[in-house]
## 1
Amino acid sequence: MAVASSSLLFLNSHVLSSSLPFPPTRPFPKPQSWFLLRAKFRPISLSITRAVKSDVSKEDIVIVGAGIAGLATAVSLQRLGIRSVVLEQAESLRTGGTSLTLFKNGWRVLDAIGVGSNLRSQFLEIEGMVVKSEDGRELRSFRFKDEDQSQEVRAVERRILLETLANQLPTEAVRFSSGLEKIETSEKGETLLKLNNGNQLLAKIVIGCDGIRSPVAKWMGFSDPKYVGHCAFRGLGVYSDGQPFEPRVNYVYGRGLRAGYVPVSPTKVYWFICFNSPSPGPKITDPSELKKQAKELVRNWPSELLNLIDISPDETVSKTPLVDRWLWPTVSPSASVGRTVLVGDAWHPMTPNLGQGACCALEDSVVLARKLANAINSGPASIEDAFRSYGSERWPRIFPLTIRANLVGSLLQWEDPIVCSVRNNIIIPKLVRLGPIMEHTNFDCEPLITQISETSGER
Ligand SMILES: Cc1cc2nc3c(=O)[nH]c(=O)nc-3n(C[C@H](O)[C@H](O)[C@H](O)COP(=O)(O)OP(=O)(O)OC[C@H]3O[C@@H](n4cnc5c(N)ncnc54)[C@H](O)[C@@H]3O)c2cc1C
């Protein structure tokens, strides 16, 4: 397919709107502010992009993967006046995984990119957590703000988070059914991306946001993430007449088995069950089988869990083997090679035991966008440096968190009855302090919105 799109390199999508098939979908900044932008982000080259072969088009910045990391990176770049194209293998935004909990670091980033208020209005603030044993006995409860006044916890629906981010971008910025199949480096140092729809793109900059099985990471020499010995069932219970729970995270700790549920909105409650398993087991897609297995695990546990599983629409129920990858210094490849860089799970898959995978992906996206924007401002030669600086800044943040999340998971998945009894009767009721445990949610982030004030997500 011959593609001949014109694109002025590194100008914001608004500036491009006159020459590209990307109609602006949101109010533009005031003219004087985008003139400033043009001056600030001077183009690397003003060449017109055209097809170099019948089916190869050129792009400046290609983001692979329209998950949380990919969309947040595209929005962050856009806020700084930089256009990118996002390739997504699926036909539409991914909705699997149903919900996730975002802590204050995640909310700082969402505020910085201008979507925090919009999302806040749709999801309940969670005030605290309660930990129970499998017989329903309360072991301990905490209020988040007693430990840290600035803490903010909400469970968000992944679908709404992704849609909110995507709605900040021009309609055609995200290209669906565009799975990356193969990567090659061209003689000029550009990167050739071959897609499973037959298209090929020659990219100056590639940002791999393609999740735990990232082909970009593989190409950069990263090993596959490692299965950690437990799997998670997840789902979203829907109470059409209103859900009955207080705004708290509820945890139930058993032996080699734990579960939790947290209200998401006035009608929805997210739940999960984590269980030990020597292998990830076969992939199960039949929702009734997934529900049956999940219920079997907690059949003698507090009944609200069984009820939640029953009232979860089929499409919200899934089973995921938990994996991570430890980024050992000197042994692991760097976050970037030349002008290709990784963000989110593609770089640092971590277990969900601290609820930090998506939060860290959001953090990555703003840090990277700022550094890339500064590099573009000071000339193309510094892009590699910007990516190295991103890797050096983010590694001390995500490496310890990955290990900590893994260790917390191992401790919580203990099977030994004596150890579990000590945990439930001494450690949790008497020794645990929530404040220090949640220090990792501290993350400062200035707004990226220099030219556009927050909108309610209009396109
Ligand atoms: C059970 C569980 C519970 C979790 N709970 C939480 C939580 O409470 N809080 C939290 O912060 N995090 C949580 N996480 C982690 C969180 O889900 C991930 O860290 C987050 O989704 C990472 O986002 P990402 O964009 O990097 O990857 P993904 O969300 O996986 O997105 C990757 C995208 O890339 C696309 N893609 C993949 N390959 C290709 C290709 N070849 N070509 C084009 N596109 C491609 C995929 O289709 C997908 O859309 C949890 C994870 C699990 C497993």
## 2
Amino acid sequence: MPKNLLLLAGDGIGPEIMDEVKKIINWLNINKKLQLKITEELAGGCSFDAHDTPLTDDVLYQAMDSDAVLLGAVGGPKYDEIEFSKRPERALLRLRKELRLFANLRPAICFSELVTASSLKPEIVSGLDILIVRELTGGIYFGEPRGVEPIANGDRKGVNTHVYTSKEIVRVAKVAFDLAMKRNKKVTSAEKSNVMEAGMLWKEEVQKLYDNNKDYADIELSHILADNCAMQLVRNPRQFDVIVTDNLFGDILSDQAAMLTGSLGMLPSASLSEKDKNGRIRSMYEPCHGSAPDIAGQGIANPLAMILSFAMALKYSLDLDKVADDIESAVKAVLKDGLRTPDIMENGKRKVSTSEIGSAVIEKLK
Ligand SMILES: NC(=O)c1ccc[n+]([C@@H]2O[C@H](COP(=O)([O-])OP(=O)(O)OC[C@H]3O[C@@H](n4cnc5c(N)ncnc54)[C@H](O)[C@@H]3O)[C@@H](O)[C@H]2O)c1
């Protein structure tokens, strides 16, 4: 059955890295007889330029209707001064909110070929393969009340509210447990139950879900304070398999875990919704990096995070696990051959362009 992919290349290097995914999709359709149908639309600054809004309703409806959304990156200095509601980043927040993408999956994998790119010692990061599951639609980024208000004596007060319901905690914990069953069967839940009531609830609900679910009996569950988790991630990151945490801690811990791998241009991500009543999951896949305006238009951006995000879409939304595995192996093989975009360049390797490394991935798929 044909699958519909909505491609939102966005701004900066977004179109350049998306071009490489388009090349791969085209190759797969012809050579592996896949039926991946793509539609390309605007989101972010380019949409603001064309339509005075970072995301039109029409594009949002197309996103809701698609089997998966692939997003390049949005933003850039050109848009820094425009009003908050029209900033390119609002496109992402609106998509996440309207598609109800509550679970953000961020793998941090240290490819053995790139082990020296990390600022940590190779023996600490070599073979690293962890997955951070971050709750994406609750917590302090969305809680009410919020705002900045004047108080007595000309002073001002800034307020944000950290709030989670049991239901929100359980649904993201389930995602973490289900993914851990397909991996190394270890889940670490990170919160601040020592100082936050919402953290206590988080810990209790995750434990309760685990205790009451026989399907998770093979999983080893542990709880960790988020600050200790940050320390352990640099001390001994390989102790972790799946880490599940809230929106705020997940934002920070997933960036920290990402940097363990040393190469921003290599990191994919997925954001998933719950199943709706027709059993359908909405999803968006994007690299962890931004629009890299400093190198946009030069043909030197690393497209591998975008390509690996596409592989995640094949796995989690399109039931094409084997093709996804083949793409991941092709990426590894290209690195093993010594091909590098400038961001991951090392002595003795061959510096190549965005398009050359994309074509090399296709060669390895053959
Ligand atoms: N999801 C998103 O779309 C997203 C995420 C983060 C930042 N942004 C936006 O992107 C813009 C730039 O932000 P930033 O500079 O803080 O972060 P960035 O990730 O765009 O860039 C940080 C550094 O990493 C490099 N880099 C990033 N991706 C790369 C790649 N694929 N290949 C080679 N080098 C790469 C850049 O050249 C830059 O030096 C801002 O407008 C920001 O708001 C968007």
